[in-house]
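New to this. Please check this fold:
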Amino acid sequence: MHPRQISKWRRHNARYNKRSAALIDRLEPIQMKKVMLTVFKHNHGAYQFFREALQFEIDDTSPSMSGCCVDDCTYEILSRQTKHAEALGHSHGGGGHCGGCCH
């Protein structure tokens, strides 16, 4: 890839990261507590983007957290609390299951 293309790609990526984070923050007025998504394990770019750039975590409902079919599962379920949930102090601390309060 040409250096100009790399620079253009990085600028585009930075704008996309900011837009994605802003979109998640806009969920606050509708009182959504958590955003969840599914990402394929083989899609390293998407996995890294959501985990590092947008600070999503592996959700308690992800197959890798249950211990069954860890090697057979081709995806992870990721989640991130919204600012609304953080403002309410809504946390499950230490990965405890929410019992449906976030869904």
About this structure: Residues 50 and 85 are 19 Å apart (CA to CA). Residues 3-87 form one domain. The chain has four helices and three strands.
